[in-house]
Amino acid sequence: MSSESKTKTFLEFQFAMLLISGNILFAKLIDESVWMITFSRTVFASAGLYLFLKWRGKPVFFTSKTENLASLGSGILLAVHWITFFASARLASPAIAVLTLFTHPVITVFLEPIYFATRPRKTDLLLALLVLLGVGILIPELKPGNDLFLGILSGLLSAFTFSYRNLITKKFLSHHGSAQVMFLQSLTAGFFLAPVCYWDPIPTSFHSLGLMVLLGFFFTAFAHTLYVKSMFQLKLKTAGILSSIQPVYSILLAWIILGDIPGYREITGGVLILIAGTLETIRFKKDGP
């Protein structure tokens, strides 16, 4: 990969991270259930991506049964990831949700060798542990059974499903267009979550619907397609560690938009995560993806 291509991939990835960081704000801004928010985002994201693919004259389904099954599995994982992510924000806090999610670089370092002919290097392990330490500092004392504890468990499940979805996506679908991949995953997630309509009323508030459209079209369809596109050009562990900057983005956005002022834990943990992301960025620029 040329230096210019590396810079382009890095900038696209960071822009995707900035947009995805804004997702967590919707857990507080939209006064609907976690299930309905997630289902709605899949509907609007699928619709937007379908229109985009048709406009570009691109196919919407794969011809291979294996690839369609991979889309089905990764789409269900994506749905579980989104549900548990928002549940973590509601049970604990947006900061805890984002920070527990970002144990996924550690998970990816150990899962990637199962699917790809790679072995974790000492540097990978050290950077992953630095991220884990940063996340650990951000988490206050745990007491099993309370909402904080359940929120952290939800965040960890979100991290695992996110990491596993990325592995399946890159292993089986990386030779396809990112918009097509994201469309099928969003569509699958939508069907998986559709039963929510039986127990949760469809939102009628203009405010809620407007925010859901924004979340679905821009912060999901566009942002995640850009993320998948960048991920296809990187090693998963590189993408995972580079994406560790997202908690910092999320905390800053929550500070600016929601008025959630970060405390010393958020600042200390965020600095460690930022250091790990910076070191991985330098190594990416030097050695490649």
Task: Give an account of the 3D structure.
With 289 residues, the chain is mostly helical. α1 (3-21) packs across α13 (246-258) and α3 packs antiparallel against α4 (65-91). The protein has helices at 3-21, 25-29, 34-56, 65-91, 94-101, 104-115, 122-138, 147-173, 178-193, 196-199, 206-231, 236-242, 246-258, 264-287. It has one domain. The chain is 79% helix and 0% strand. It is built from 14 helices and no strands. 49% of the residues are buried.
Shape: globular
The main pleated sheet reads as: none
Q: What is the string of helix and strand elements?
A: HHHHHHHHHHHHHH
- What's the total helix number? 14
Q: Strand tally, please?
A: 0
Q: How helical, in percent, are the residues?
A: over 70%
Low-confidence stretches: none
Number of domains: 1
What number is the mean pLDDT? Answer: 81
Strand content: under 5%
Cα radius of gyration in angstroms: 18 Å
Q: What is the terminal separation in angstroms?
A: 8 Å
Alpha-beta classification: mainly alpha
Quaternary structure state of the chains depicted:
single chain
Name its key features:
single chain, 289 residues, mainly alpha, 0% strand
Task: Present the secondary structure layout.
Blueprint: H1 3-21, H2 25-29, H3 34-56, H4 65-91, H5 94-101, H6 104-115, H7 122-138, H8 147-173, H9 178-193, H10 196-199, H11 206-231, H12 236-242, H13 246-258, H14 264-287
Keywords: Membrane, Transmembrane, Transmembrane helix
Domain EamA: 16-138, 150-276
Pfam families: EamA (PF00892)
